[in-house]
Amino acid sequence: MNARTEVRPIDDLRSYIAALEAHGELHRVKAEVDWKYELCHVSKVNEEQKGPALMYENVKGYDIPVFTSAFTTPKRLAIALEQEPGLSMSQLSKKWMELTTKQMIKPVFVDKPPVMENQVTGDAIDIEKFPVPWFYPDDGGRFFVTAGYLVTQDPDTGWTNLGTYRSQVLGKDILGSQIIKGKHGDMHMKKYQERGQLMPAAAVVGCDPVLFLAASTLVSAQMDEYDIAGSLRGRPVPVFKSDVTGLTLPANAEIIAEGFIDPNELMDEGPFGEYTGYYSGNKGKDYPKPVLRIKRILYRNKPVMWSTTVGKPINDIHMIQSLNRTATLWYDLETMKVPGIQSVYIPPEACGRFWVVVSVKQMYPGHSNHVGNAVIASTTGHYGVKGVITVDHDIDAEDWDRIWWALATRFDPKRSAQIIDRGRSTPLDPGLPIEAREITSRILLDACTPYEWKNKPNEIFMDRAVLQKVSDRWSEYGFGGASPVAGMINRLTRPEPPKKTKTHEM
Asked: Which residues are CB-neighbours of 275 under 8 A, at least 6 positions away?
């Protein structure tokens, strides 16, 4: 590693930004940019070109910078996870799975959290003192939490949940929160409702990126995202206990708005241009949302506002969901002891959740179908997934050229397609009518050559020795740069038979 990329460990948003800059992955926008529409539009154009992360240093009317486009390439996700920057999405997801299957690392409580450097209470509370963007023309207003999360706690067990629920500014001390029915935050809220009590809650913006990644992850009830983030880092997350809400909050956050939610107080929220590329929260059509009444705002000296453009693919949210849902699905399949899994991928182009690709080395008749059914039965796959494509082990789950080829040559609609009529859906799915989004159908596409076929099609392969010769002579052919052949040999040639191991007679 050269001097340019030698960076300190990442434990907050600032150290992540420094790491991005060290790797040449950050652009500072010094020109004045309007928080209403313009900031989002610049970011979206940048993301369409797979450009760098952006730091807006001159937001109109504010002296607080806004950070966007944090995760829109696999390289930046790898940097956030302190992994090798060259890893693919599937490889990163496998790393995630491996790290989080080890022992969870509990957070550590600290005495002087940086986020408490500044405190605002009472009449001084005004969430619009921060440069909260207005993203798209048909949005219902400004949204404080897009790259952040809501902290809630189970009143019975103390289980802390970090949920990525968007939060709209509905007043200087009021945030409307998109707590979707059936989510963990909703489970907590129902318990407080049954008790006739207010629910403590805190909206967090600007944090160690693994906390945002963990908050976006589908995990089982009673599992703390702080523990997951600790396992990803290999060290405990620094936290503190709030003397206002009693919640366990991240010590190194940039901004925290904490207060209480009355489960019986609901307000119209939205519309908001969601990660599906469509609006949700249409007033009069969707259910009203709970609201967080802010009792205190905490923020660091010289805070950084972190936002994401959301909207049509591909942006931060799609990359995050692709990464963590691929990781959790891979873990689910491993836990279910489904054999032969070679690679797993939930593409960001599919909004990071609606379609799944799994590569499998078949071992018995019906094995590939077993994999497809296991996906939609899993913790990750049962919620919102609409389609599963299974391919043979010779095709990587990220290799779309070969996936399309497999669908063209190894797939028969009658034999290989299976439709499941009923499965749990998400209320954000625009493919379903607004009034009926609880249930969706699903399709399994088996693009594998059937294991039981005795006479399988004879696939074309190239000669390994000749390819090596081509690689050696690459520059002689007049091509610039290093030979690309090394990364293609296993893909283009017949798989080598496994080497026989020598046995010793006793």
From this structure: 310, 311, 313, 315, 317, 318, 321, 351, 352, 428
Strand 238-241, strand 108-109: pairing: parallel
Say if residue 1's pLDDT is above 50.
Answer: no
Whole-Å CA distances, 352 to 237, 314, 326: 26, 9, 9
Contact yes or no for 255/206 (Cβ under 8 A) = yes
CB under 8 Å to 150, separation ≥6 — which residues? 162, 163, 164, 165, 167, 177, 179, 185, 201, 202, 203, 204, 292
Listed in sequence order, the residues at least 6 apart from 23 whose beta carbon sits closer than 8 Å to its beta carbon are 4, 5, 7, 75, 79, 85
Q: What is the CA radius of gyration of the chain?
A: 24
Taking alpha carbons only, the member of 229, 344, 242 closest to residue 298 is 242
Q: Would you say 143 and 133 are in contact if contact means Cβ atoms under 8 Å apart?
A: yes
Q: How many CB atoms lie within 10 A of CB 76?
A: 24
Q: Please count the other Cβ atoms lying within 10 Å of the Cβ belonging to residue 362.
A: 20
- pLDDT on residue 6: 55
Residue that has been written with the tokens 């970090």 in this structure: 162
**How far, in whole angstroms, is CA 207 from its chain's centroid?**
15
Average the pLDDT over 110-130 and give the result.
Answer: 97
Alpha-carbon distances of 34 from 43, 70, 152, 162, 200, rounded to whole Å: 12, 19, 33, 30, 33
Q: What is the DSSP letter of 457?
A: -
pLDDT band at 222 (very low <50, low <70, confident <90, very high): confident
Mean pLDDT of the chain: 91
Q: What is the pLDDT of residues 83-102, one digit of tens each?
A: 999 999 999 999 998 998 87
**81: closest CA among 310, 245, 324?**
324
**DSSP string of 162-183?**
EE---EEEEETTEEEE---TTS
Task: Tokens for 262, please give them.
Answer: 């009355």
Sequence-separated (6 or more) residues with CB below 8 Å from residue 49: none
Q: Count Cβ atoms below 10 Å from residue 217 Cβ, excluding itself.
A: 24
Q: Is 13's pLDDT higher than 80?
A: yes
Q: How many CA atoms lie within 13 A of 481 on its CB side?
A: 3
Contact status, residue 367 vs residue 374, Cβ threshold 8 Å: no
Q: Which one-letter amino acid corresponds to residue 81? A: L
Domains, the chain: 3-92 (no CATH), 106-301 (2.30.110.10), 336-447 (3.40.1670.10)
Q: Indicate the pairing of strand 387-392 with strand 305-306.
A: unpaired
pLDDT surpassing 50 at residue 3: no
The bridge status of strand 439-447 relative to strand 387-392 is parallel
What would the two tokens of residue 356 be?
A: 């799944």
What's the rounded Cα separation, in Å, for the pair 492 and 33?
49
Which amino acid, residue 173? Answer: D
Q: Are 53 and 70 in contact (CB under 8 A)?
A: yes
